[in-house]
Amino acid sequence: xxxRIRAVGFDFDGTLIISEEEKALxxxxxxxxxxxxxxxVESAYKKLNGKALSREEKVKALFQQFLKRNPAxxxxxxxxxxxxxxxxxxLCTCPLFACTNxxxxxxxxxxxVFLLSLEDRKEVLxxxxxxxxxxxxxxxxxxxxxKIENLRHLLxxxxxxxxxxxxxGDAHSDVIASRAVNVKAVLVGKKHLYEKxxxxxxxxxxxxxxxxxPYDINxxxx
Length: 222
Known about the structure:
- By secondary structure, the protein is of the alpha/beta class.
- It has helices at about 10-15, 20-35, 40-50, 55-65, 75-90, 100-105, 120-130, 145-155, 170-180, 195-200, and strands at about 5-10, 110-120, 140-145, 165-170, 185-190, 205.
- Helix 2 packs across helix 3.
- It starts with 6 loop residues before the first strand and ends in a 15-residue tail after the last strand.
- The mean pLDDT is about 80.
C-alpha cells in the first residue's frame, strides 16, 4: 500500500538561495585571503559536494589537501565566521523564495514542512527570519550536523517512516543524503535533465525548476 507523504523538506543551500558554484567561489576566496592558497580550492570544494559533508568536514578536507594538516579549533572558528560573513553578504538583498505558493499548498497536504542546510543552523535561522522565510517552516535544521544526521533526527522525532518523507534539492549531495535514509528524493534544475549522471543519482522525481513540482505530491508518479 502506498504511503501518504507526511513531511516535505527543502534544501536551503541551492534550491532557495545560493548555488554550490557560488559557495565554492566564496570558499576559494576565504582560503586565498587567510592562507594565501590561490589555486585549486574552488575545484576541490566542488568535488566534495557530492559526499553530503558538512561545511566543517569540507574545511578539514581542504586543510588536509592544501596545508597537509588538520585545522586548529581557532582556525575552524575563524573560517566559520569569515565564510559566514561572505554567505550573509551574498544574501543581503534577501532574495525571495521561488514559487512561494508551493509551500502554502504543501502545508495543507502534509504534517511537517522543514528546511535543511549544511550551513550553521544559527546562521540559517537568522537569515530566514531576516528574509521572512522562517514562517513557512515547522523546523529549520543546519550544521554542524550533516543533512543525513538531520534527516534521521526528523524521522525519529516525528516518528516518520522514510516512505512518508520527501526531500527537494538541487545538488547531487541532496540525493545522496536522501538515499542514505531511504526518503524520497526530488531533484530540481535543468542541468540534471540532460546529464548521464541522472541515472546514477536515482532520484525519485526530476523537474527543471521548483515551480514545476505539482502541488498534489501524493499524486506524483515516477
